[in-house]
Design goal:
Elements: E1 3-8, E2 11-16, H1 17-31, H2 34-38, E3 41-43, E4 50-52, E5 57-60, E6 63-64, E7 67-68, E8 70-77, E9 83-92, E10 95-103, E11 109-116, E12 119-127, E13 133-139, E14 142-146, H3 173-194, E15 199-200, E16 206-214, E17 217-227, E18 233-244, E19 249-256, E20 266-273
Antiparallel strand pairs: 1-2, 3-4, 5-8, 6-7, 8-9, 9-10, 10-11, 11-12, 12-13, 13-14, 15-17, 16-17, 17-18, 18-19, 19-20
């Protein structure tokens, strides 16, 4: 193998070229932590968007410069092509950045919290398979401070009222929260296109009622806020939505204030896959 010979302090030092390359690569890895994660960038199965993962996936959300970028849903698949785990949250240049919620293959929540540079940083909550949970502060994917009030024997809802399964079709808080996150992502990505330039106010959507229509299909009712085409704010406007979880489809209906063309309030509908 070729060698480089140089004179240093009156002595000869022999350095092989491949060792130099290896040394430079090691320096890059040390001083650029993000480099390694870039090596795992994969393209989605359903679009030309890259995400930092080593598993096949689909992306439902915005794309910027060839990367998953914005708020949306990552759906992973196993080696056989079956749906696996899922993440609903925000992504920046193909990496988790902001608030993210992860779900197991069976739809159970496994983690929710803040991400910085694709690692858990800030407040977060992890859910264990035995039904317990642990909440606290994370630093570079490590739980460094546990909230003593966050350790519980059951999942605690952080959004609103409690819904319990009964004969009327109402379900529990966990499903309500899943539906709310799906609707929020749907509105974030589609609202302006669906409703003629009106802009959804992020995180304003609140569910007041959840009803199971049939297996995998749910109906949700509540309120949300948006800005009109001319910037007027419309707060706590009613909505009604049908969510097809298995098909990842939503039919969203919203109440609109009376205007020049309508003598009273009316409803508009949008149907899209998310």
């Amino acid at each position: 193998m070729p060698k480089i010979q140089e004179r240093v302090g009156g002595k000869y030092t022999f350095i092989m070229k491949n060792k130099i390359k290896l040394f430079l690569f090691a320096l890059c890895m040390v001083f650029s932590p993000s480099l390694f994660s870039q090596l795992r960038m994969m393209k989605a199965k359903n679009c030309d968007a890259k995400f930092n993962t080593n598993m096949p996936f689909t992306w439902s959300g915005p794309i910027k410069n060839g990367y998953c970028h914005g708020k949306g849903t990552i759906q992973w698949f196993d080696k056989k092509g079956n749906k696996s785990t899922k993440m609903i949250g925000t992504i920046k240049k193909g990496k988790n950045e902001g608030y993210c919620t992860f779900y197991s293959k069976k739809g159970k929540k496994t983690f929710e919290g803040m991400y910085v540079n694709d690692m858990r940083n800030g407040h977060g909550k992890i859910y264990y398979s035995n039904g317990t949970s642990e909440e606290g502060e994370w630093s570079d994917d490590t739980l460094v401070a546990v909230d003593t009030d966050g350790i519980s024997a059951a999942v605690v809802d952080t959004i609103g009222a409690t819904y319990t399964a009964n004969s009327s079709g109402l379900f529990d808080d966990e499903m309500k929260k899943t539906l709310q996150e799906s609707l929020d992502v749907f509105c974030y990505n589609n609202y302006s296109d669906c409703f003629s330039g009106r802009n959804y106010i992020e995180y304003s959507l609140r569910i007041d009622k959840v009803e199971k229509v049939e297996e995998g299909i749910w109906k949700a009712e509540g309120t949300h806020s948006y800005k009109g085409a001319y910037g007027t704010l419309y707060s706590d406007m009613e909505f009604s939505a049908i969510i097809y979880l298995t098909q990842q489809k939503i039919v969203f209906n919203k109440r609109v204030k009376a205007d020049y063309f309508h003598s009273s309030d009316y409803w508009e509908e949008c149907s899209k896959y998310y």
